Amino acid sequence: MGSLAAVEAQPTPPAVRRRAGDLLLWAVVAAPVAYAGLTPPWPRHAVPLLVGSLALLGLAVAFGRRWPLAALLAVVLGSLVDGNFVFAIPVFSYLAGRRSAGAGRVAAGFAAVAVAGTAVNLGLLGTNPATWFLLASVLLFAGVFPWLLGRLRRQQRALAEAGARHAEAEERERRAAVERVRLRERARIAQDMHDSLGHDLSLIALRAAALELATDLPPAHRAAAGELRASVATATERLHDIIGVLREERSGSLRPAGESVAELVDGARDAGLSVELRSDPAAGDLPPLVAHAVHRVVREALTNAARYAPGAPVTVTVDRAGGEVAVSVVNGPAPNGPLPGPASHGSGLLALRERVRLAGGTLDAGPRGGGFAVAAHLPLTAPAAAADEADRPDGPALPTVAGPGTGRAGGLTSAAGEPDDGLRDGDGTGPADRPGDAARRLREARRRARRSLLVAFGAPAGLALVLALVYYPLATAGAVLDRSGYERLRLGEERDALGLPRRQADPPAGGAPAGCEFYTDGNFPFAEPTWRLCFADGRLVSKEKIAQ
User: Fold this and answer.
1) For the segment 14-35, what is each residue's pLDDT rounded down to a tens digit?
2) Which residues form the Signal transduction histidine kinase subgroup 3 dimerisation and phosphoacceptor domain (predicted)?
3) Res 526: pLDDT
4) pLDDT at 454
5) Greatest extent of the chain over all pairs of C-alpha atoms, in Å
6) SS3 state at 280
7) What is the DSSP code (8-state) at residue 124?
8) In DSSP terms, which residues pair with 535 in a beta bridge?
């Protein structure tokens, strides 16, 4: 029952959700076409036409994510064969706005459809202006307007993502500022310790040396003074090491007092890690700073192995030879993959490299034989450059990335074996945002969202006005009878003597009685019929104004 519940609780994969969404979309857009095709009367070739229409909609849905403009044009062309495709045009127009990165191609596609449709309807088919205006309005409000809404929704989503990135950048900057304050305070404390205790210990050592060389003291007293001088020298060296640790980005407080590498490995083995220790007996007596660095390397590497290669065998090797100590931690490939958790940014390995560098050593980390290896070489005596940097008033140079977390991905070496500075996005696509970059992206996203909102509601109104300006002269050319001309008409006059316009207006929706003609007074923007004139035997028998 427990395993069954765990299976049921697993989230649906994104690919399955996409396929289910596409299937639902196809069912919605195909419903009007299928209903019309299955409802009698059935025209000739009804079955092949229905199958072809449903297949076209299926292809539009299937390829709409990759080629949204092509899917939209396919649906528009389908409306030439089956008028029920018009119900799918707003859907695919909206999706084209959501899925298209740029607006140029889709806008060019709408313009091409409008120009081609106008040429075909007015030029080839001789469609009357009212029908052309209706088709143009369908293209505008069923195509352009939903597309603009989709563009607006896309910009709103980009704005939300930019806002989230901006908030994350501000949070990182806040944490970095807090960390800088903490490090400055630690560096100040370290400097105070160096200036006060170091000076006092130096004076004590100087006086002990003077006593050791005094000839008027008994030999036992001079020997005691020598031991005192040696103790002060040892204390001064330990103070130097403590100051170096205090000035690091991370303190060694997580290490239990006096814990050795062997005890660290035993603790990892007790926790379930399959780890083997190969240690040189001479490596147990190391200078404090070097010992701390070796302990830190082993601890970080074991932590990474437990997280990213659980169940893999791990080998820890510590050798001391030639004035340096070499430590390596190698693990095999993960049998079941890494443990679940947030993506790593490599800050643990970066901090580890800084720790090894302060000790005068070098660190190498990267894939090896399907697994992962971390190796460090540390001199038993720190070089002067590292010691001088540890004595800087502001502490050692900080690693590039601040914040918690250890890991291999994005560490010192990428999975491909290339150098990696750890400054990558969570998806590994590029450099991490600086606060200024995030603010700039947020401002740009807000500007695009405002512009999309303006275009989404202003463009249809503007295009409707343009359509009206184009339609009006087409509808009124040669069909306008003004009020004064209407009032001059007399019943009983012959039609040829009335001087009527050369072209009639389209009759109202209710139809036209036999022998009646309709004219408009030029009302804007639709030029609807205003006057009805009826004739019998070529003479005007009635005239009236049509109620609007």
Assistant:
1) 888 888 888 998 988 888 888 8
2) 185-249
3) 65
4) 66
5) 156
6) coil
7) I
8) 540
Sign of CA dihedral 157, 159, 165, 168: negative
Q: Give 26-44 as a 3 state SS string.
A: HHHHHHHHHHHHHCCCCCC
Backbone phi, psi, residue 450, to 5°? -65, -40
Alpha helices in 214-260, H assignment, sequence order: 219-246
Task: Report the distance separating Cα 348 and Cα 399, nearest Å.
Answer: 10
pLDDT band with cut points at 50, 70 and 90 for residue 108: confident
Number of alpha carbons in the 13 Å side-chain half-sphere of residue 377:
6
Tell me the backbone φ, ψ of residue 534, rounded to 5 degrees: -115, 140
The answer for residues whose C-beta is within 8 angstroms of residue 434's C-beta and 6 or more apart is 169
Residue 260 DSSP symbol = -
Tell me the DSSP string of 327-374: EEEEE---SS-PPS-PPP-SHHHHHHHHHHHHTT-EEEEEEETTEEEE
Could you give the count of Cα atoms lying within 13 Å of 93 in the half-sphere of its Cβ?
Answer: 23
* Domains (range + CATH), the chain: 261-333+348-379 (3.30.565.10), 477-545 (3.30.1450)
Distances, alpha carbon 427 to alpha carbons 163, 344, 423, 432, in Å: 18, 10, 11, 10
Give the pLDDT confidence score for residue 124 in this predicted structure. Answer: 77
Sign of CA dihedral 335, 339, 340, 344: negative
Q: How far apart are CA 375 and CA 361, in angstroms?
A: 11
Q: Which helix (H) or strand (E) holds 377?
A: strand 371-379
- Is the bond preceding residue 41 a cis peptide, omega within 30 degrees? yes
Cβ neighbours of residue 190 closer than 8 Å, sequence gap 6 or more: 243, 246, 247, 395
What does the block give as tokens for 149? 């809404």
HSE-CB of 511 using CA atoms within 13 angstroms:
2
* Phi and psi torsions of 179, nearest 5°: -65, -40
Around Cβ 335, how many Cβ atoms within 10 Å? 9
- 380 touches 290 (CB < 8 A): yes
Helix axes 129-139 and 435-476, enclosed angle (nearest 10): 170
Helix residue ranges per DSSP H, 120-144:
129-139
Prior bond to 525 cis, omega within 30? yes
